[in-house]
Amino acid sequence: MSKLLSSDIKKITLGIFFPSVLVTTILSLTPFFPFFDRGLYDLFLKIKTTWYPERLNSRIVPVDLNDASENALGEAIDSRGAFTDLLVTLSGCASSGVLDFVFKNPLGGESGGELSPADLELVNAAADMKSLILAVIPVPEKLVNFSHGALDERSRTVLTKNLWHIKEMGAASIPTARSFILSFPQLSEEASQLGHIGVEHDRDGVYRKTPLFYRWEDGVIPSLALAAAVRELRIDPGSIEFYPGKAVVLPLGPEDKPISIPVDKAGYVRIPYTSRWADTLYRISFADVVRARYDDAQFETVFDELSGSICLAADTSTFKQDFGVTPVEAVFPRSGIYLAVMSGILNNSFYRDLSTVHKVLFFALLGIAVLVLSLCKKDSAFNTGFLILCILSAGLCYGLWRFAALVPWYGLPLFFIFLCWLGCFIFRLFSRYREQLLYRNALARYFPKSLAERISAEGSIDLAPAYKELSVLFADISNFTKWSADKAPDLVHTFLSHYLESMAAIIFEHGGTIDKFMGDGILAFFGDPFEQADHADRAVETAIAMQQKISVLRDLWMPRNGIDLKVRIGINTGKVIAGNLGTKTRIEYTVIGAAVNLGQRMESSAPPGGVLVTAATRLAAAGIAAKDPGRFGPPRFISVKGYDSPIECCDVLFDSGQKPAVSGKVI
After folding, report:
1. If we measure between CA atoms, which residue out of 366, 327, 281, 317 comes closest to residue 60?
2. pLDDT single digits (tens) 352-394
3. At what angle do helices 411-444 and 379-404 cross, to 10 degrees?
4. In this structure, what are the phi and psi dihedrals at residue 161, rounded to the nearest 5 degrees?
């Protein structure tokens, strides 16, 4: 493709670049790009957790009530004795106990009545815990069809006691709970903190975010993970600051940097998955912790593993089916979500969105790069540059994710790059088509249509100057200068255009190439740029057809302007130099040489209305001589300028009865 002109550059800038910016900006306000980025986020997250897994914070130990523990403990689970044993063991070694269980009703009793011995023992074990966080299930306000009994006064009191009153630094849209499902009041009263386990999946059923708070009455109930982390870090809940759409800030010591949890306006945090559930290290069996209460050797083992840790006990058995779909795994225990969030808080490690300022800056730099590439003059540089830009953007996107935990933002940049590339590509195709049309039109002025199309299709032809044997034809109107001297310019122009167009059509029809128009004169040649073995025959046949057409034109123009149209035509065959000749600023495809000059001498020596050819042309036109031996007149010699010796030539006869117009010595 040829080089772009400055006008084309302006068209690209105004017609492609700025509209692409506008379209991309408008689409950025729709779910189009977030949908794409969400898929990329899932892919990157799966790659990270599969190939670069991270362990949970060292202070966290999951305690799994798995299928093996269920089978081993049996009735002790249903009677809640196993949970009592769990709490007794944890009180002797763990820093905090976090139970992802809800004991809704007392065994064999009313919520406010006397407890059974088993429940009483469970409550006493809970009271002995230094720090116990119990789970509650929120009933979102939007679940209008969810049937749940009203909270009794004692349960409401427990909830009120566990409310946090955080500092909301702006208008927030924290989800509201119209009620909660919590353990029976006697047990809930012994908890150090209640934490909700309300996780919500996206519309496609995948868990990517979880709410840190649920609003209730004049405060909020924190998530189980947040409650455990804040308790472990000894943070006053009243000092927590919530900046909607930005972060939840947990202040630490006066000399420590606060923990900043990136959230949206509703207080939802991206779940910082660290690994697949099967790859989670330092998990301990629920049954092993229960048995440690009665087995000293087992307690020593458990003590070493749980000492000073936050133990999250959860049901991961297949019976309860407390699993969900995550980007990490299709079957993932929901307790793993609490673990991941808790670990993220303690490590101050989360997946963060690129800030608006950084997005605008990156998009501006990308726009500059795209604009520069759009102005590339070479197709190879243009296409390669856009490909490299896509690869670099993808690499930067993954690098920021891998090493800075920034959520992928690639849909908008990729779309913008593609849109600009597509627009420029179509523009270049259109420019190529336009140039080809101009090229073909230019070729059609010099070559027959078939040859012009072939040259255009092949894209190149060897037009370097070279010696070739060709047949050269000169044609000139007799007495044209005298006739046109007193005629109006419009009349002369109209006549000459009609004449030259008619002659060019005949030349092209016979496969000739027009070198140039010289006023009313014509220079054409045959046998180039493509070889023609019969170039002499073609030249002679062209001259005959031209004279026949001129006879028709004479009858047409004689009544109009009084011109007695007669044309002299001369033809010579010989070696010439053919090719592109000229300077850097002007070049033309032409023929030069002595054979060309002799062809012109034949034209000037030809009688008006006649055709004079050299002996070389007559000899080369073997095809015509074979078909019509009487086509050529008898040989004769004429004296021409520039030649010391007479030149042998002959006339071309148009009709069998025509007599040659003899001027010169006949032999």
Report:
1. 281
2. 998 889 888 998 898 888 888 887 878 888 899 999 999 999 9
3. 180
4. -60, -30
Question: Residue 113: what pLDDT?
Answer: 65
For 110-138, what is the mean pLDDT? 88
128: which DSSP letter?
Answer: T
Q: Is the pLDDT of residue 262 over 90?
A: yes
Question: Which CA distances in Å does 48 have to 45, 358, 453, 470?
Answer: 5, 24, 57, 74
> Strand 587-592 relative to strand 521-526: parallel, antiparallel, unpaired?
unpaired
Distance CA 388, CA 385 (A): 5
Whether the per-residue pLDDT at 592 is higher than 80: the answer is yes
Given a cut of 70, is residue 610 above it in pLDDT?
yes
Decide if pLDDT at 586 tops 80: no
Residue matched to tokens 């929901």: 334
Q: Percent of the chain, pLDDT > 70?
A: 88
Please state, in angstroms and rounded to a whole number, the distance separating the CA atoms of residues 278 and 331: 10
Pick from 355, 353, 361: nearest CA to 405: 353
Which residue has tokens 């809800």? 102
Is the omega angle on the peptide bond into residue 529 within 30 degrees of 0, that is, cis?
yes
The dihedrals phi and psi of 448, each to the nearest 5 degrees, come to -60, 155
Taking only Cα atoms into account, the Rg of the chain, rounded to an integer number of angstroms, comes to 48
Distance CA 379, CA 429 (A): 11
Phi, psi of 89 (to 5 degrees): -65, -45
Q: How would you label 359-375 residue by residue, b for 16+ Cβ within 10 Å and e otherwise?
A: eeebbeebbebbbebbb
Q: How confident is the model at residue 566 (pLDDT cuts 50, 70, 90)?
A: very high
Q: What whole-number distance in Å separates Cα of residue 54 and Cα of residue 45?
A: 12
Task: Fill in the DSSP letter of residue 328.
Answer: S
Query: Has residue 667 got a pLDDT over 50?
Result: no
Cα–Cα dist 442/556, whole Å: 29
Please classify residue 439 by burial: count the beta carbons closer than 10 Å to its beta carbon, then call 0-12 exposed, 13-18 middle and 19+ buried.
middle
The helix (H) or strand (E) run that includes residue 352 is: none
Q: Helices 489-509 and 535-561: crossing angle, nearest 10°? A: 150
Please check the confidence at residue 657 and state whether its pLDDT lies above 50: no
Please tell me whether the overall predicted TM-score, pTM, comes out greater than 0.85 for this model. no
Q: CA 596, CA 7: separation in Å to the nearest integer?
A: 42
10 Å Cβ neighbour count for 353?
17
Write the secondary structure of 175-203 as one string of H (helix), E (strand) and C (coil): CEEEEEECCCHHHHCCCCEEEECCCCCCC
With b meaning 16 or more CB within 10 Å and e meaning fewer, what string describes 639-657? ebeeeeeebebbbbbbeee
**How far is residue 173 from each of residues 120, 180, 199, 225, measured CA to CA in Å?**
40, 19, 16, 20
Domains and CATH numbers, the chain: 6-30+354-441 (no CATH), 50-160+175-232+270-347 (no CATH), 460-666 (3.30.70.1230)
87-112 average pLDDT score: 84
Q: How far apart are CA 443 and CA 438, in angstroms?
A: 9
Q: Convert the pLDDT of each residue in 179-191 to its tens digit.
A: 999 999 999 999 9
Tell me how crowded residue 609 is: count the other CB atoms within 10 A of its CB.
Answer: 18
> How many whole angstroms from its chain centre is CA 253?
48
Full DSSP string of 583-629: -SS-EEEEEESHHHHHHHHHHHHSPTT-EEEEHHHHHH-HHHHHH-G
Tokens, residue 311: 């133990």
